[in-house]
Amino acid sequence: MKAFVALLKKEEMALFTSPIAYVVMAAFVVIMGYTFTLTLFLTHVPTLVHLFLQIYVLFLLTVPIITMRLVAEERRLRTLEILLTSPLTEASVILAKFLASLSLIVVMLLLSYTYALTLAVLGAPDWGPIYSGYVGLFLLGAALVAIGLMTSSMVSNQIIAALLSLSVFLLLWIIDHLGWLLPDPFNAFVVNLSLLVHFRPFATGSLFFSDAGYFLSVTLLGLFISVRALARR
Amino acid sequence: MPRPDVIVVERLVKHYGARAAVRDVSFTVKEGEIVGLLGPNGSGKSTILRILTGYLRSSSGSVRIGGVDVTDHAARNNVGYVPEDAPLYDWMRVREFLRFMAEVKNVPGRAVDAAIASACAQLDLGHVAGVPVGKLSRGYRQRVAIAQALLNNPPILIFDEPTNALDAYQVIAIRQLIRSLAGQRTVLVASHVLTEIEKIASRIMILRDGDLLTADATNEANRAPRFRLRIVGPRQAVLASLRNVTGVVAADVQTVSPTESVADSVDTAAYLVETVSRPRIAEDMAQSIIGNGFALAELVEEKPDLERVFLDLTQRATETRAA
């Protein structure tokens, strides 16, 4: 446990001492601020649905930047050799990297919570959809980080890792459009692979176990493949 | 009481795709030995060390470290590993890095500070403890890499090319350091520099193209002694009398000036004689020479020549493969 805590601390330090985290957070806050202000002034409705959908897109674009270096960089610099010849398991290395990256997602979500507080000051928002939206965003973030970690574990070039995860994200974003073109029962299967199909209910205030199960399954699958990729040496 | 084997490698094979990097290698290392693994670049040294440390998985064969199979994570507690070129976290300060490594190596909480202080003292890192690793010279990086290997006081130390790309002073310092660390520990050092290995190790293994050519090159050298003689007499007759001695493998005139032939000269000449290892062979050669009426001016047994063994073995391996 102590070794895992040390590993997690090291990953947090690596993340929060690199400029990448701050650039991503700054871009996130600026774009969110613009979207929030614009939608509030245009609609005059105290809701964060538009903001959540905007965050969904931003996560697809920024998570590859957060996760690209996680394993690929350690592989390239050969620091994995130091790490994996100590009595650590591959699973603990992956889990520490996952939790550290997820903590950045949580910080970004906490930053965006200021908009919910602003709504509370200006009016009386319906808190149900706001909380369900945050649950959805957290689950989405976890799934995306796991996929990003998986691609980073498979290659030693971080740019390729970023491009690979971005490609997977974009595919999972639009795959429902392809699904509708397929015959039964393939259409239902492919449509259900879509990130947006499972995220939209959260953003609009509907919580379904099937949607949460989808994100948890993607997360676990991503972590499992990451561990296998790291163990394949 | 015989010392136990702390590293046991049996029929180790490692393939990278279709290429065999290590072929059927077996050896043992006894407790307290300082063993050198010598071989040209690409001979499979690093691959073997990485398998020994659990970083790589073998394609087949087995490795036991301190009685524990290397695939078991517990085996890593017994090994301190210093990889080639000291891959470290450049953004960490030296003390920070050592603390992190001590914690991941499960050094008990109270002992962490003492372990770091001891490693820093042993490697003279105290004055750079607050410096980021990325700002250190190569020599100091190597010291930090060695320090992290010592933190949990492992009984086995493994070094991969420890003096690579260091300047002459750093090479001497690191060499002395490794020898001083040996003491009660078992040390395995890989290098492609013969003179380095010769100065550090008490036993040398030679590797070529993934094959272990010998598990004890010094013994190999001792098994084929070489004598240098100065004899007065007709050279062909002297050579014949030397070759008649039982155990002589080869005898040749060592130097002949370009203007004279071996057959013509009857002056004093130096002879180089290779023999099998046999008691009293020097006396038998002297007796044969004197008995044939020649004058023996000098007979010296040459120190075992590792370079010769290395060249002979690697050349033989190349010829065998070509055949």
TrEMBL record, chain A:
Highest taxon listed in the record's lineage = Bacteria
Record's signal peptide: none
Q: Which GO terms describe its cellular component?
A: plasma membrane
Give a yes or no for keyword Cell membrane in this entry: yes
The way it spans or sits in the membrane comes to: Multi-pass membrane protein
Which InterPro entries is this protein grouped with? ABC-2_transporter_component
What are the UniProt keywords, alphabetically? Cell membrane, Membrane, Transmembrane, Transmembrane helix
Select a single GO molecular function from the record's annotations and give it.
ABC-type transporter activity
Which compartments does it reside in?
Answer: Cell membrane
Q: What is its main location?
A: membrane
Give one Pfam family, short name only. Answer: ABC2_membrane_2
Name the PANTHER family for this protein. Answer: MEMBRANE COMPONENT OF ABC TRANSPORTER YHHJ-RELATED, MULTIDRUG ABC TRANSPORTER PERMEASE YBHS-RELATED
Q: Name the chain's protein.
A: ABC transporter permease
Organism, per UniProt?
A: Rhodopila globiformis (Rhodopseudomonas globiformis)
TrEMBL record, chain B:
Give the source species: Rhodopila globiformis
Which family is this protein grouped under? Answer: Belongs to the ABC transporter superfamily.
CDD domains per the record? ABC_DR_subfamily_A (cd03230)
* Protein name in the entry: ABC transporter domain-containing protein
Give residue ranges for domain ABC transporter: 7-234
Its domain of life reads Bacteria
Which Pfam families does the protein's record reference?
A: ABC_tran (PF00005)
Keywords noted in UniProt: ATP-binding, Nucleotide-binding, Transport
Instruction: List, alphabetically, the InterPro entries matched.
Output: AAA+_ATPase, ABC_transporter-like_ATP-bd, P-loop_NTPase
Gene3D superfamilies for this protein = P-loop containing nucleotide triphosphate hydrolases
Q: Which GO terms describe its molecular function?
A: ATP binding; ATP hydrolysis activity
